[in-house]
Design goal:
heterodimer, A: mainly beta, 6-stranded mixed sheet, 4-stranded antiparallel sheet, 12 strands, B: mainly beta, about 0% helix
């Protein structure tokens, strides 16, 4: 079945540091890939997505590229801010069936120090 | 605000009691999903509706769980004879057809004592 593996956390960075959060996946067919973010006290929000190989999703300075050859969708940001402190979830949606249910990774907590 | 809403936001109940949660999706969305999230884990799929039809249920959804979406608008998730293992955040999401973005509600946090 489908699965998503995220790097172990938590991650603590200083403001303006470079961020990479690794995500790899296992899926049949051609899934769409997502990063969701959960800020303290808030619900899950879509951060970015990519629907086919080599697509790059981007939003709020974050980027991730759909790499089919390495089955990866790593999240990057060049300069993190304190306001980026949140839990980040990588997810995939099975593109082969009518049900586009999401399969999530465990999530990783990012804390950014001033 | 026209986002996904869930009610109640918090529920504390005693083991063996029944509980019901409600989800109101974004009005033009025909797909509605329920997920469950436990501490330190990502959300796990429970069930999915296209309009009023329940098209898929996860093996996580035991016989004590039932979900409805009677008119293809709001949905309810009922848990009968709750167990301590049912304690979790229950999330609802909605989307349009196809690989469209799912928009999540704030969740209902259930604690079974």
């Amino acid at each position: 079945g489908n699965s998503v593996t995220q790097m172990e956390g938590p991650v603590t960075l200083s403001e303006e540091a470079f961020l990479t959060i690794n995500c790899t996946y296992t899926a049949t067919g051609y899934p769409s890939l997502f990063w969701y973010v959960q800020y303290p006290g808030e619900g899950l929000q879509l951060l970015l997505k990519a629907t086919k190989a080599d697509d790059k999703g981007s939003n709020k300075g974050f980027e991730a590229t759909y790499r089919k050859e390495t089955t990866s969708f790593h999240l990057e940001k060049g300069s993190v801010q304190v306001s980026d402190s949140a839990v980040y979830f990588c997810a995939l949606s099975d593109g082969t069936g009518a049900n586009s249910k999401l399969t999530f990774g465990k999530g990783i907590t990012l804390s950014v120090r001033p | 605000d026209t986002g996904v809403s869930q009610d109640p936001r918090h529920k504390i109940t005693k083991r063996g009691q029944n509980v019901t949660f409600r989800c109101d999706p974004i009005s033009e969305h025909n797909r509605l999903y329920w997920y469950r999230q436990t501490l330190g884990q990502g959300p796990e799929f429970l069930t999915y509706f296209q309009n009023e039809a329940q098209l898929e249920k996860s093996r996580l959804l035991s016989d004590r769980f039932s979900a409805e979406r009677p008119k293809g608008s709001f949905s309810t998730l009922e848990i009968q004879r709750t167990e301590q293992g049912d304690s979790a955040m229950y999330l609802c999401a909605s989307s349009n057809s196809g690989p469209e973005t799912q928009y999540f509600g704030p969740g209902t946090r259930l604690l079974v004592l």
